[in-house]
Automatic annotation (TrEMBL):
Major localization class: nucleus
Compartments where found: Nucleus
Name of a matching Pfam family: Cep3
GO MF assignments: DNA-binding transcription factor activity, RNA polymerase II-specific; zinc ion binding
UniProt name for this protein: Zn(2)-C6 fungal-type domain-containing protein
Domain of life of the source: Eukaryota
Entries under CDD domains matching the protein: GAL4
Amino acid sequence: MESLEIQKSKHPCGICAKRKVKCDRLIPCTNCVKRGFEKECLERSVEGKIDEHAVLKLWQSYEYWVTDIGLFKSQEVDSTNTFVDLKEEVDECQYWCEFLTREISFQLLDHCVERLGCLHFGCLSDISDLYLLLEEFWQRRDDANGTNVVFSVDDHYSNALLWSLFALAVYYMPLELLSSVFTKKPSTHLYADVDSDLWTERDQLQLSQCFTNCAVIQLHEAKFLANPEVRLLQVYVILSATGYPHREVSASNALLLLCFNVAKLCHVDDFRPLITDSTAMRLTKITCEKIWYSLCSCDYLQSGPRKPTVFNTEISSLLQHAAYLDDLPNTDVYQSEDSFEALYWKILSLDRDLNQYLIKGTKPPLKTLDAIQRQTDIFTRKITSSEDSASLASDFARFLVSFLLNTISWKLHKMYFIYFDITNGLAKSVHYTKNLVALVVKNIKNRRNILFNKHPIVIQSFARIAVFYAFYEMVTGSVEIRDLNLDLKEMLQNLSNVLQPQLSGLFYLISRFRLLKTLWESMESDSFGNILEHPAMIILQNDINTFSQQALQRPSMIRGSTRLLMKRKAPQDQTAVEDGDTVFNSVVAEFESQYAIDYLTRRNREGDEF
């Protein structure tokens, strides 16, 4: 005969917690047996056993909707307060054209070619053409001096390409070099509050944004909708490295979709070599391949509810080829890619393979995670054994690839930990976090390479990492994670202010979790039948709902009415709120009113404090 063992729970049952009565924590508890709620108590006890694991699963939704969509891919737009003056924008572009001197323009182009090659070499067939274009730019300026010369579509496209490179150079240029190039600040309202000629990172960001706007205005003057051209793709690829997609979410998404149509129209996605290709055709296809991979990288990084139409999925997953490589042991899986753009996309596609489970909210198969682990090992071997490869010809390219690989490894082991409770999953995620911090700190110490940290992928990756560990420290109180968070905070404070406003938004999220930790500790989780009913957890679920409900909004067809929101089911774990617990309601409402999550959608955060 089997021996009967009395089962006891670590937490009060959900029914006793809701009734605010003492529970003996038996399964089922004595109170519920007396009141005839034995079945309900057993069901809630089963839920309680998985609650702590469910908290980590909740994080996956939070990471996608708040850290990714809310912080980087949402923008608060009020069409009623927007005054459109196209003439003012054209006049501003003209002001910057007159502000720029021939000497400064060549210095900016030199910096782009010498230090930022991996960000734009791939989308251009011949770098020497850039200097010819710049000479032609100044020749047109001289010819148009004092006359009303009408520029052609080709002229405007060339101007847009050059101004995108100027914006790129200003964005990444060290402040000391920027001060020597621009000895005087522009006399515009953007710099009216600064008396000295000393450049700050805030000034640098504003100047880069002005040059970016100049490039976009030049595209409008080329009437790019009526005159599709491959230079539109080149301009977009270059601007995407400056954080433009995060600053102008809607405009950037619309422009990227137009780039896709132009790429199809110009057969940029058809770069398969043929034996009948001429030399010129082979060279053209090589450039087309690089542009296509770069566009697919942009498309994936911008995908979300604000841009539901994606085209990067036209390139299949690397994981589909894993079995093929296993069947052919003579195949050299460590062979280097011919270009940085191809290597970067292949590594980024592994992130896509992981990210699909955040979007769907489903559990990834263990064999999929193992396959991604094998692929990351292959790429790690590639970048460590190919110092002189064409795809990693610069320090910047090597940094981006190493940083991206460590980011994917971090996300991979975090998912091992959350979904499969792999014992060393958390430890390995911490290991890769420290690797990422070391890469950034190395650039900070080496002043020559500090510009690498300004790449948008840096802030995107650390946003996920820093907020996750702030959350994990809140629910566990881990001393190790607390120390890691202090290191992350110190490192983030040393990042460049050109990463604004996302950097300020990240600090806001982290500080918000510190306050949530106080709330978490002040109300013991043991007093709740289900840990997901804790006020801190309800606040996090409300955060998720804030951004996920935006994806359900539909425009009203009735003039003057607000947007329509499709009906959404209330979270199942919000029973305490539904039962009318006034204390519970006030705690959640007070916190959300003081530290509103919709702060992330306000784009002008530079002057805010936390």
